[in-house]
Amino acid sequence: MKILVVCLGNICRSPLAEGLLKREAEKRGLDWEVASGGTAKYHIGKPPDPRSIAIAREHGLDISAQRSHHVTTADLTAYDLVLAMDRQNAQDLRARAETATDREKIHVFLEYAGVAAEFGTDVFDPYYDDEAYEGVYKTVENAAKGVADRLEAKE
Ligand code: 4NP
User: The domain 2-154 is classified under which CATH number: 3.40.309.10, 1.10.3470.10, 3.40.50.2300, 3.40.50.150?
Assistant: First the structure.
């Protein structure tokens, strides 16, 4: 299973999602390949935001080696499942997909994880809110478990 998690800049939310999904897969012995990307080009090649690195580190997770990647149409073909951190990014990705098959791979992360009732539909964009990172971490951590539960149930 190849999973791509996507936000706008690929420096705040989706690096946490990549790290937490990888950790969840490792814990459960699931054979997943997980990567992340952004729909915007602002931060290509940069490490995650220092605030995301810090909140992950507080929870024993090292995401500092990740580098921001801009999502291409080819990525939508290469991955099996594409999870967008919010509805706007899901919409942007769907507009980029060239086939119905690729379009159908795109889901809103918290909806796919089955946690939208508890945490809302969109992962809050913390870029302009230093205080939001802990909440984002908890949301993404719960969603990573939800995604793993859903995919394990399918197997
Ligand atoms: P992300 O957060 O999409 O979670 O990585 C953002 C990062 C950068 C910007 C906005 C959101 N920006 O406007 O540069």
Answer: 3.40.50.2300
